[in-house]
Amino acid sequence: MDVMFCTFLYGFGYDPSTDDYLVVQASYDVDLEPATRVEFFSVRANAWKEIEGINLCYMNCCDEARTGSLLNGAIHWLACRYDVSTNVIVAFDLTERSFSEILLPEDLACQFDFCYLGVLGGFLCVHVVGYEGCPAEIWVMKEYRIQSSWSKSVAVVVDEIPSYFSLICSTKSGDIVGTDLSQGLVKYNSEGELLEHRSYCDVRGRLQTIVYSESLLSLPYDSDQAEED
User: Fold this and answer.
1) What does DSSP assign to residue 114?
2) Domain named F-box associated beta-propeller type: which ranges (predicted)?
3) Chain mean pLDDT for the chain
4) Number of structural domains, the chain?
């Protein structure tokens, strides 16, 4: 009997202990939701491997699969722990190949469909999507894994234009850059004041924006598989 798994968490990171880049994904059996599977793709081995003995009690906090945020040798996700009905940050250690939890801010009150995890200025952060009439909030964890170190860093007031703000990254000068949901980028200063708003195209539909670093790393290439495709 064929088993269909649906991916709900995934991410990419580097394991210094093996000098290897890994793609990690967690998925669940669509016919038996508590049954989960965790596997990773090793760039060095050019192969997938399942991590045995792990059955997660997490689900992502919305209907879409979420990309993890890399920090301190671990990939992090916002997730719902359904066995105790609470929301947490789940961390996957790339060297130990193990999961752990990080507690969210006690004062963070929001709908988690509108919350996202990221890294801002080298710190783990949670940002609440802002839209017209509802400010965007950015919470920063100043000491890694210390719940009491969470602090509200910026509260962005979203006006009619742009009518939406979701965080992407920060600049070296401390400004924050985000998307306006459609085809534009928005920049605010550290006080939450709008500095710039630019639209780049007029096509319909939402575009996904990511931050990347250039690398000389060459990914594995299977010439036989390419010929078959």
Assistant:
1) G
2) 8-165
3) 81
4) 1
The torsion angles phi and psi of 149, rounded to 5 degrees, stand at -90, 0
Q: Is there a contact between 89 and 104 (Cβ–Cβ < 8 Å)? A: yes
Pairing mode of beta strands 86-93, 98-102: antiparallel
More confident residue, 82 or 103: 103
The pTM (predicted TM-score) of the whole model is 0.80
More confident: 162 or 55? 55
Q: Do 152 and 180 touch, CB atoms closer than 8 A?
A: no
In tens, the pLDDT along 128-143 reads: 877 776 777 889 999 9
Could you give the percent of the chain with pLDDT greater than 70? 79
Does residue 185 form part of some domain? yes
Give the H or E element holding residue 224: helix 223-228
Please report whether residue 52 resides in a domain. no
Give residue 113's domain range. Answer: 106-204
Whole-number Å distance between alpha carbons of 214 and 219 = 13
Residue 32's pLDDT is 62
Q: Under the phi-then-psi rule, with left for phi > 0, alpha for psi from -120 to 50, and beta for the rest, what region is 192? A: left
Residue 39 sits at φ, ψ, to 5 deg, of: -145, 160
